[in-house]
Specification:
This protein has one domain (3-302, 344-461): Amidase signature (AS) domain (Amidase signature (AS) enzymes), CATH 3.90.1300.10. Helices cover 36% and strands 15% of the residues. The strands form four sheets. The protein has an eleven-stranded mixed β-sheet, with helices on both faces. The protein has a two-stranded antiparallel sheet with strand order 4-5. It is of the alpha+beta class and 470 residues long. β2, α5 and β3 form a beta-alpha-beta unit. The chain has helices at residues 8-16, 22-40, 48-57, 60-63, 105-112, 154-161, 178-183, 218-228, 272-283, 302-325, 331-342, 345-368, 405-411, 442-456, and strands at 45-46, 74-78, 116-121, 132-133, 137-138, 140-141, 144-148, 167-172, 187-190, 210-215, 258-261, 291-293, 371-375, 391-392, 395-396, 417-424, 430-436.
Amino acid sequence: MELWKLSAFEVVSLLREKKVSPVEVVQAAIDRVEEVDTKINALPIRCFDRALEKAKKLDISEESKNPISLLGLPIAVKDYNDLKGVRTTFGSPIYRNYIPDRSDATVNRLEINGANPIGKSNVPEWAGGHTFNTVHGITRNPFNLGRTAGGSSGGSAAALASGQVWLATGNDLGGSLRTPAAFNNIVGLRPSIGVVPRGQRLQPFDTLWVEGPMGRSVKDVALMLDAGKGFSIEDPLSFDSSYKSVLSKLDTSRIPTRVAFSEDLGIVPVSQEIRSITKKAVFSIQDLGIDVTDALPDFKGVLEAFRTLRGILLASMMNDLVKEHESDILPDIIRNVEVGHNTTSHDIIKAEITRKKISHSMVEFFKDNDFLICPTTSVSPFLVDEPFVKEIDGVKCQTYIDWFAITFALTMTSCPVISLPCGFTDEGLPVGIQIVGKPKREDELLAFSKLVEDVFNISKFVPVKNIPTS
């Protein structure tokens, strides 16, 4: 039995039934990493001995008393998250040798519930939509090694798509979880703020950055969300959900009456190929008896407001670091911090008013529509030697983050958003859709996404069994 080909849910079931041991599962992951990651570079920081030691000590009979335990399932931890005793570099030479003495709130919750990290997944230096840095190099897309895995959770997404792990942590400010999910044909959930606790590196009252689960299917993501959600004293916005298990509710959902689809949210450029593929996929769900409309909330001013608030967040997070190590930080990151410093009170007020308007617009939208759907990305995975996308469908991008504006527009809604595989380009590159649900109703969003996933039948193409040679 080749364990790496199975889903996270299937492997956890085997562990619970004692048909495989935690050590066997960890070794299967290690073997797969060593087989394929020299081509992909998804997991540059590895802690195999730590994982094997933990697996040897795990008592499945005792652990099984916890219904949401992952029972020793190996996972990847994004290199923006602290894992006790293992390097956290943030993709920066400044932190090349930094080793935290404890896991952060996100990772700690997963470890308490039976996750067993085997390595840290690669990231861009501090932030970005393309995973490369001077410490660990470029992460490549398992579907085409000449293309990007996306970012900033590119290492996590590529590790999942290539079968190195069954689950991985991700985080999402403007699309850092959703973009790589789409580029690698896997599933990524941006939960509502507070559903998954965050570590103390982040501003405690920030409402843009969230931590979220990544997996090869909706069911696997639900499994990980159950193990990772909940209150932590480290995160004042975190809370215990009203539902105990998302996984248990996946197959009890009603079919929604009406959903809305937009090719571009009315505000962003999108390539013609992405428009065609996503539109064809979404309209196929009409066979379920769902009415697909073109209703749309008012996204006017949202992109400018996000850029303002993102600049303030990065400046507040990185101000002291930039002062001390400016020469060792990417110029793009420096410019983002400067945006925060140069923001006026008028800019902040305008951004918050815009955020209020989009929130109210979403409330009105959900009175007549159950979900909003749009493409996850405006483009397909681009060449690895291009730092970012400069033009989309004839429209020039003004900044290095504009090409993923279709994800950061939805960040501003404060709603949970999932990226779900929906098809492939003519070059065989993955394409995804975003589905937006009502705030704090991840259970409803995941249940509907499971219905859609079954219609699309695209998730079966991961893990990629034969990684290209070049």
